[in-house]
Design a protein that fits this description.
Helices cover 39% and strands 26% of the residues. By secondary structure, it is an alpha/beta fold. The strands form two sheets. A six-stranded mixed β-sheet has the order 6-7-8-3-9-10, sandwiched between helices. A four-stranded antiparallel β-sheet has the order 2-1-4-5, with helices on one face. A hairpin with a 2-residue loop joins strand 1 (2-11) and strand 2 (14-24). The longest helix has 18 residues, at 167-184. The mean pLDDT is 92.
């Protein structure tokens, strides 16, 4: 479904990604792990069109994404939940969710998608009229995921969904991520600081170091890999 081939990305004169190769198949949960500054968020931002590769290709269902603006990439069925959630704090929960459905013109379809998000995250329905900025960190993460789901994506890019969230809510959010994959059939590329959690939820994984993929394997093998254990699993 998603293929990156030989992708180089720069911030000015500083190279952030070096010949990156990865793929995600339809229906998978794939995780990308690595230390801070390894290039994980840069990878997701490149896929979603917020950054442009200087070299290499990014394709989604065979369509070249490199020249497309982010809104066209969303139209193709790929949504990005950024690190730090980036909700609209002054808008209500309902208004934030409506923003995620800006490409959906049919009122009935918008209502159905809203109902589905509320089924996944009942807390959002309870707080529908609250400003997003008044929610807890975990609830804001639910809102950010829900907003992305309003466009009914075929693939979801999740950047550090557990960051700054109470442990009890982290499990709840990851349970819902698995449910979205299982029940909606949504393919997921997951960047996550908690490598142990990510590797237990995903089917395959990549290890990224200083902008280069250094390991790729099934997650059960990565969990047993001595290098991964020492560097990421304590």
């Amino acid at each position: 479904m998603l293929v990156l081939e030989g992708v180089d990305v720069f911030y000015g004169r500083i190279q952030a990604l070096h010949g990156l190769n990865l793929h995600v198949d339809d229906g998978e949960i794939v995780t990308l792990i690595g230390c801070n500054g390894a290039g994980k968020s840069t990878t997701l931002r490149t896929i979603s069109g917020l950054l442009r590769p200087r070299r290499g290709g990014v394709t989604f269902d065979g369509k070249d994404l490199a020249a497309l603006p982010p809104n066209r990439i969303v139209q193709l069925g790929l949504s990005h939940v950024p690190e730090g959630r980036r909700i609209f704090t002054n808008l209500t929960v309902r208004e934030n969710l409506d923003m995620g459905a800006y490409l959906v013109r049919d009122p009935k379809a918008r209502r159905e998608r809203l109902d589905r998000v509320f089924a996944l995250f009942p807390r959002l329905e309870e707080r529908m009229d609250q400003p997003g900025g008044t929610l807890s960190g975990g609830e804001q993460q639910m809102l950010a995921i829900g907003r992305a789901l309003m466009s009914r994506p075929r693939m979801l890019l999740l950047d550090e969904p557990s960051l700054g969230i109470a442990p009890i809510l982290v499990k709840e959010i990851f349970d819902e991520i698995a449910r979205i994959n299982r029940e909606e059939g949504t393919t997921i590329l997951l960047v996550e600081q908690n490598a142990n959690l990510a590797l237990h939820r995903a089917t395959r994984g990549y290890v990224l170091e200083t902008g280069r993929i250094v390991l790729e394997d099934d997650t059960k093998n990565l969990l047993q890999n001595p290098q991964v254990k020492e560097a990421y699993l304590g």
